[in-house]
């Protein structure tokens, strides 16, 4: 295991930890990463990825609040030995393993995610046919798009195994999944797109909660 060494890659343009920290601060200000909630990661060319360290306040991350791990969860780099990778690293491992084009994986907790996760007891939650769905890659008239829902087991590896099992036989329609009573995870081919996907999905969930209150969805 290597200890973290500042290097030539430690610059704002090439080191994704700066953009991850900015995104986390933005999500924190939206109330989607309250306190230490949520975790963000970015894949590197060698297939390892930087992920937020466990239990860090997401509104004030710095580059030392990340751990670089392999696709099998082995720790490669960190600022000090007492920093642990996110408790949900194994979910990021599953996403990067299943979706080779994924370059970023973002997981946030919002009030609306938790509310909409009760709108169905099924394995998939139907999204309203909003124009915003196009932003998630579905260019259809009156789209019938569902987001997969997983149960929030205490053991995170069990959640990860269920994601892996289900997605191995049926790919999701959109690059997102919901964990009931917990949060939403999105993945994308760039950090910018992952941030946009979080915003779009949160907009759709806000709409769903408001529409339910108005009795229209
Ligand atoms: C605020 S507790 C939330 C955690 O249990 C977990 O769900 C989470 O998203 C953050 O865990 P972390 O280990 O900091 O990445
Ligand atoms: Zn979480």
Q: Could you write a compact summary of the structure shown?
A:
With about 220 residues, the protein is of the alpha+beta class. It is built from five helices and nine strands.
Description:
The longest helix has 24 residues, at 191-214. The protein is built from 5 helices and 9 strands. It has helices spanning 16-29, 89-98, 111-116, 156-169, 191-214; strands at residues 39-43, 49-52, 66-69, 75-78, 104-108, 124-126, 146-150, 176-179, 183-188. It has a single domain, classed as 3-Layer(aba) Sandwich (L-fuculose-1-phosphate Aldolase), CATH 3.40.225. It has a 9-stranded mixed beta sheet, with helices on both faces. The protein is an alpha+beta fold. Residues 1-8 have low confidence and may be disordered. The radius of gyration is 17 Å and the shape is globular. A hairpin with a 5-residue loop joins strand 1 (39-43) and strand 2 (49-52). Residues 38, 88, 107, 109, 182-183 line the site of zinc ion. Pathway: Amino-acid biosynthesis; L-methionine biosynthesis via salvage pathway; L-methionine from S-methyl-5-thio-alpha-D-ribose 1-phosphate: step 2/6. This is Methylthioribulose-1-phosphate dehydratase.
